[in-house]
Amino acid sequence: MSAWQVRVLFVAVLNAAVQHGTSLEEELADSILGNFLDTLKDSSDHQRGSDAAIAKFSLRKPSHPDDDLCYIIPNKPASLAACAFNSTSKTFMVIHGWTLSGMFESWMPKLVSALYEREQTANVIVVDWLSSAQNHYVIAAQKTKAVGREVARFIDWIEETANMPLDNIHLIGYSLGAHVAGFAGSHATNKVGRITGLDPAGPDFEGKHAHRRLSPDDAHFVDILHTFTRGSLGLSIGIEQPIGHVDIYPNGGSFQPGCNLREALEKIANFGMFAITDAVKCEHERSIHLFIDSLLNKQGVAKAYRCGSSDMFDRGMCLSCRKSRCNTVGYDVSKVRRARHVQMYTKTRASMPFKVYHYQMKIHFSSKVNISEMEPSLTVSLYGTKEEAENLELKLKDKLVTKKTQSFLLVTEKDIGDLVRLTFRWKETNSWSASNLLKMVSSWWSGDSDGADVEVHKIRIRAGETQEKMVFCVKDPNNQSPSQEVTFVKCQGNWRMKSKGIMRVSPESQT
Ligand SMILES: *[C@@H]1O[C@H](CO)[C@@H](O)[C@H](O)[C@H]1NC(C)=O
Ligand SMILES: *[C@@H]1O[C@H](CO)[C@@H](O)[C@H](O)[C@H]1NC(C)=O
């Protein structure tokens, strides 16, 4: 990207900031991505490389995760012994992606170390195809097939020479390296056990036939983490479509927390175009760090949940684990194979450990005033047996409606233990007057009386991580004084469900 382009981008970004304050992030992403992808697409001034693909196989040592001390050379069986290859142990082959620098990136030794930390006797082989990956993106993408074939020949040779079951082979490919792994898997004589695709590259692979990209046919089990499927100009850095047996989209597969593009704006001013690459790389590379996290934090593995769409997940509609609807993110994923692709979602923290706790809240709003006219800001505080998580924002995807149960997703970074109490707080927004708010809130929690029964507003909660289901009732239903904060505790006594989502409590059962 030339300095001129950067300046244009910067001006465009500032204009965007002035005109659309709220969608700055989106505008920014489009500008950055557009420019970034343009440089990927423009290959006219680069020669088509025709030299044979070269892959080298470096068996790294746990004590030197950053150094290439010993190469295994195909057709030289002595190199296996020389590198102390353990043929009865698991073998990981880590395959890097496209590179500008022609060097391994800093994640490589981190991933190697994490693999050794988890599987001490494993063979961690780094597949070095830097010489081809250093080309212009389009050329590097074309070379993935040839490199994949070479990796396949290596796998065939090592299987025969070391008499190794291929179930022990796990290919881990990042970006373009994921497709290298796919070609390696499809060209190997026998199927390898597993391929993990870490944000497989999108440009030149999206929408292509399964034979021309990583696909579920390439290994007994193929799992994918999608972290940067942000589309622009019909292209996305990471592939958007599901291409494995299990495809997990952390944070919807885009806008990873901690990879703030707003911060990138400030960095552009200070550091120039490197900040652009940083912002793109942060999201793309997040897939690797999520995988490393899953290797290191065995106790705190994150869960992902099957869902029809990211939007439905954000509404809290998909936190069930029934019939393998949920799975573990990363290394310990359950190898569930279905005829159709399985898309799963999860939220994460901004840094390691990435795990969060997901809660589904189902709330039935009942009110005498028309609440769909307002856009309140709702915050919830959760009080558990271990800890509390206060002032969590309840994101409203739609307008509130009455006489209908609405579902929300709430996430907390803390493990609060068992939920015992929660408070619900409405904040006034500009467009809504305080008197209306109080009227609304008071009618909201006091409910309509209907014969002998009192309609009580309750909140049904499902904790994703424990799968525990709970029902919470207003703590003090007899207190009529309007308040912006309402406390709920676990419902007690003789409650029963009537009709759809409305719970009625007999007055005598209340304290
Ligand atoms: C090779 O791996 C096996 C199984 O993981 C392990 O039991 C054995 O100790 C390893 N051998 C060496 C020399 O490390
Ligand atoms: C509530 O307000 C919305 C928006 O002003 C309006 O479209 C809707 O018809 C109203 N509903 C009732 C029951 O008054």
Please characterize this protein's 3D structure.
- Residues 357-492 form the PLAT domain.
- It holds the Pfam family Lipase.
- InterPro entries: AB_hydrolase_fold, Lipase, Lipase_LIPH, Lipase_N, Lipo_Lipase, PLAT/LH2_dom, PLAT/LH2_dom_sf, TAG_lipase.
- Helices cover 29% and strands 26% of the residues.
- With 511 residues, it is an alpha+beta fold.
- The strands form 4 sheets. Strands 2-1-4-3-5-6-7-10-13-11-12 form an 11-stranded mixed β-sheet, with helices on both faces. Strands 16-15-18-23-22-21-14-17 form an 8-stranded antiparallel β-sheet, with helices on one face. A 4-stranded antiparallel β-sheet has the order 19-20-25-24, with no helix packed on it.
- The structure holds 2-acetamido-2-deoxy-beta-D-glucopyranose (2 copies).
Task: Annotate the secondary structure layout.
Blueprint: H1 3-19, H2 24-41, E1 56-60, E2 71-72, H3 77-82, E3 91-95, H4 107-118, E4 123-128, H5 130-133, H6 137-161, E5 169-174, H7 176-187, E6 192-198, E7 219-225, E8 231-232, E9 235-236, E10 246-250, H8 261-271, H9 274-296, E11 303-306, H10 310-314, E12 326-328, E13 342-346, E14 357-365, E15 377-384, E16 388-394, E17 404-412, E18 419-427, H11 434-446, E19 449-450, E20 453-455, E21 458-463, E22 469-474, E23 485-490, E24 495-498, E25 502-505
Parallel strand pairs: 3-4, 3-5, 5-6, 6-7, 7-10, 10-13
Antiparallel strand pairs: 1-2, 1-4, 8-9, 11-12, 11-13, 14-17, 14-21, 15-16, 15-18, 18-23, 19-20, 20-25, 21-22, 22-23, 24-25
The chain binds 2-acetamido-2-deoxy-beta-D-glucopyranose (2 copies).
